[in-house]
């Protein structure tokens, strides 16, 4: 899937297919027959049925899962809104390639493959407090780059990001999409002190004022306030929907990619699970807006797909129970009276 025009993007967002009702019914019926009191595996049961619906099979699988990490640099970082300098983005991309980052260990532990996609790191986006972050062509290109990591053989796509300054973009995207004051969406990111937080709040406030009269479409919000890695996540999630590949979201920044889309069509998160709730304060608020209950609350705030990779292990447990447990009939046990 690629996005060669804004219309391509808008039609994909307007025309979201649903899960397979027959597979959902078959998986739910199987859950009801497994040797346990009805509902006792609770959300593990829901996860199995969710995967059945999107994969279109009674017994869903997780043979091939991919973590896709997108990386981008941000003009707004020059405003002192991160605890780290922008060159750390490229250095961490090199670390992902060398196998030394947290996500390398966590993807390996979860049995997921890892794809790292740096996007024009030597060309930071414009400072969105005084200009649109990207041109239309740049935004479409980032959407298509995101879509290109999704292949029909995937059983799960986990989305992650790396980009110094991108929690400022995420806060701006959420505020513009869902309303609320800048300070309700801004948090410490990589570890800002109080003075840094005030600069970050001021940057988000300036951005909201600068773009206040711009069209409120999902594309314009992404283009004006997003970053290339964030836009790529939006493209990947749309492509996954087209191919019915379930998605595991990561933290605040990965989720913020869907805020402008959800403001237009809330069904965009229907094929997504929230892997965890990050310590970044805006994340809990964002998940509430999406109506998603996170699988984990470990107070992580790393990004790079780390929370999504850990949560994939919960999915493995859910699918194993669904696939491998005996039914009451098979075990010769009478069901509930
Ligand atoms: O996933 C999260 O919720 C999360 C929370 C705080 C920071 N991060 C990561 O830290 C970077 C953004 O933080 P900052 O302070 O540079 O805006 C970016 O590379 C993210 O992957 C990620
Ligand atoms: C070291 C470092 C690693 C990261 N991984 C994702 N975001 C990050 C930000 C920093 C600063």
> What Rg is obtained from the alpha carbons, in whole angstroms?
20 Å
> What is the ordering of alpha helices and beta strands?
HHHEHHEHEHHHHHEHHEHHH
According to CATH, the homologous superfamily is Nicotinate-nucleotide-dimethylbenzimidazole phosphoribosyltransferase (CobT), large domain
Examine the secondary-structure arrangement and name the CATH architecture.
3-Layer(aba) Sandwich
Can you tell me about this structure?
There is one protein chain. It is elongated, with a radius of gyration of 20 Å. Helix 2 runs antiparallel to helix 3 (42-55). It has a single domain (63-318), classed as Rossmann fold, CATH 3.40.50. The protein is an alpha/beta fold and 337 residues long. It is built from 16 helices and five strands. Strands 2-1-3-4-5 form a five-stranded parallel sheet, with helices on both faces. This is Nicotinate-nucleotide--dimethylbenzimidazole phosphoribosyltransferase.
Short characterization:
The active site is at residue 304. Pathway: Nucleoside biosynthesis; alpha-ribazole biosynthesis; alpha-ribazole from 5,6-dimethylbenzimidazole: step 1/2. The protein has a single domain (63-318), classed as Nicotinate-nucleotide-dimethylbenzimidazole phosphoribosyltransferase (CobT), large domain (Rossmann fold).
């Amino acid at each position: 899937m690629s996005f060669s025009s804004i219309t391509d993007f808008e039609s994909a967002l307007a025309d979201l297919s649903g899960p397979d009702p027959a597979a959902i019914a078959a998986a739910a019926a199987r859950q009801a027959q497994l040797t346990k009191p009805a509902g006792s595996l609770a959300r593990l049961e829901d996860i199995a049925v969710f995967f059945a619906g999107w994969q279109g099979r009674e017994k869903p699988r997780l043979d091939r899962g991919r973590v896709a990490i997108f990386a981008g640099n941000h003009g707004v970082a020059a405003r002192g809104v991160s605890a780290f300098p922008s060159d750390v983005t490229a250095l961490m991309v090199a670390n992902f390639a060398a196998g030394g980052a947290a996500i390398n260990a966590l993807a390996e532990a979860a049995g997921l493959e890892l794809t790292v996609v740096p996007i024009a790191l030597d060309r930071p986006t414009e400072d969105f407090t005084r200009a649109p972050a990207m041109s239309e062509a740049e935004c479409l290109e980032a959407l298509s780059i995101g879509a290109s990591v999704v292949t029909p053989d995937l059983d799960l796509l986990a989305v992650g990001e790396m980009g110094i300054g991108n929690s400022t973009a995420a806060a701006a995207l959420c505020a513009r999409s869902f309303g609320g004051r800048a300070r309700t969406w801004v948090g410490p990111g990589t570890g800002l002190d109080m003075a840094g937080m005030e600069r970050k709040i001021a940057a988000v406030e300036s951005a909201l004022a600068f773009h206040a009269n711009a069209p409120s479409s999902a594309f314009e919000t992404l283009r004006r306030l997003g970053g290339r890695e964030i836009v790529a996540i939006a493209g990947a999630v749309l492509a996954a929907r087209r191919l019915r590949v379930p998605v595991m979201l990561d933290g605040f920044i990965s989720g913020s990619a869907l805020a402008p889309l959800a403001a237009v069509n809330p069904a965009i998160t229907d094929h997504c699970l929230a892997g965890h709730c990050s310590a970044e304060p805006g994340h809990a608020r964002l998940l509430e807006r999406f109506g998603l209950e996170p699988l984990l609350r470990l107070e992580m705030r790393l990004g790079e797909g780390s929370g999504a990779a850990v949560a994939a292990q919960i999915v493995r447990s859910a699918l194993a129970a669904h696939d491998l447990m005996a039914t009451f009939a098979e075990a010769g046990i009478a069901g509930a009276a």
